[in-house]
Amino acid sequence: MKIDAIVMREIKMPLVHPFVTSFGKTTDRRILLIEVQSEGFSAWGECVAGEHPYFSDEMIDTAWTITEHELATRMIGKDIAAGRDVPAMLLQVRGHRMAKAALENAVWDLEAQVKGISLAKLLGGTRDTIACGVSIGMQPSIEQQLAKVETEVAAGYQRIKLKCQPGYDSKMFAAVRERWPDILLSCDANSAYQLSDADHIASWDEFKLLMIEQPLWYDDFYFHAQLQKRINTPICLDECIRNARDAQAALELGSGRIINIKVGRVGGFTEAIAVHDVARQHGVPVWCGGMLESGIGRAQNIALSSLPNFSLPGDVSASKRYWSEDIIEPEVIVSSAGEIVVPTAAGRGYEVRQDRVDALTVRQQRLSI
């Protein structure tokens, strides 16, 4: 597959509702889209870096710069046999995993199109449908939080995840659990707590949570292992798992019992599969996390979630939860049973709406020989 050109586009998409976490409030998403053009084929990737370097040390502006000046130049004009060959091409550039993932994932999409198979099949997927959970941001009041949960439970989502932070946790968990004693419930702290909060976090065992996601420092294994020894609820590792080596180290230390795989966070499909495999070897379940993606990133999360060890409902929810109008067709739909059908068409399985992308584009750069 000869890479003829790489087109970078920044689009700005307004969220249907603001999304509030311990990092702050997001009302609009600036998203870097990557289009890889090759011998008549058009393939797409999405960089999930945020507007600010809060979740990770990347942001959309660093991703744009590193893609334009370092990463894309290593790919344009080259013949690439497979998506899994891309990481070696970009290895000289340290870090910038979200920027790399957008390019690599586009090449996987391209490979699937050229071979005439679905992206899910190319990745090694075995599921016809995937189970869907939903992530609910912090609300101004517990009453509004309950209303949000009620909406998502009624929509059929199989797992409800609540964002939390110090001062907005136990009372909210208690209210939700009292109202819905049997739902699959988890929380996500996004590194908002410290080990000194261990006794407080241990008190959450009474709420029978599926997991507590990344409660401590974003780059830590050791203190998570100490915390896991003191609580019954499984810790789910997110930000600190950057690659398969991290996953192996964390699991051998006992830092957690579940791993959230975000394909952008680990640098692309190749490393995501490797993390999946390490967790599977340790008997640890994984699930696919979300980063407020447009339909392009959402479609690729669906394909990844079809792998066999993605045994817990992921944050791969319907397009309409986030966007009044997505940039793919058909839009991602979640059934009343809380499931998404994995596409079987060649490539990602969803067509990119070029008209919608053009309307949302705020800057564009075409890179070619």
TrEMBL record:
<dbReference type="InterPro" id="IPR029017">
    <property type="entry name" value="Enolase-like_N"/>
</dbReference>
<dbReference type="GO" id="GO:0016854">
    <property type="term" value="F:racemase and epimerase activity"/>
</dbReference>
<protein>
    <recommendedName>
        <fullName>o-succinylbenzoate synthase</fullName>
        <ecNumber>4.2.1.113</ecNumber>
    </recommendedName>
</protein>
<dbReference type="InterPro" id="IPR036849">
    <property type="entry name" value="Enolase-like_C_sf"/>
</dbReference>
<feature type="domain" description="Mandelate racemase/muconate lactonizing enzyme C-terminal">
    <location>
        <begin position="142"/>
        <end position="234"/>
    </location>
</feature>
<dbReference type="GO" id="GO:0043748">
    <property type="term" value="F:O-succinylbenzoate synthase activity"/>
</dbReference>
<keyword id="KW-0460">Magnesium</keyword>
<dbReference type="InterPro" id="IPR010197">
    <property type="entry name" value="OSBS/NAAAR"/>
</dbReference>
<dbReference type="Pfam" id="PF02746">
    <property type="entry name" value="MR_MLE_N"/>
</dbReference>
<dbReference type="InterPro" id="IPR013342">
    <property type="entry name" value="Mandelate_racemase_C"/>
</dbReference>
<dbReference type="GO" id="GO:0009234">
    <property type="term" value="P:menaquinone biosynthetic process"/>
</dbReference>
<keyword id="KW-0456">Lyase</keyword>
<dbReference type="GO" id="GO:0046872">
    <property type="term" value="F:metal ion binding"/>
</dbReference>
<dbReference type="InterPro" id="IPR013341">
    <property type="entry name" value="Mandelate_racemase_N_dom"/>
</dbReference>
<dbReference type="Pfam" id="PF13378">
    <property type="entry name" value="MR_MLE_C"/>
</dbReference>
<dbReference type="InterPro" id="IPR029065">
    <property type="entry name" value="Enolase_C-like"/>
</dbReference>
<keyword id="KW-0479">Metal-binding</keyword>
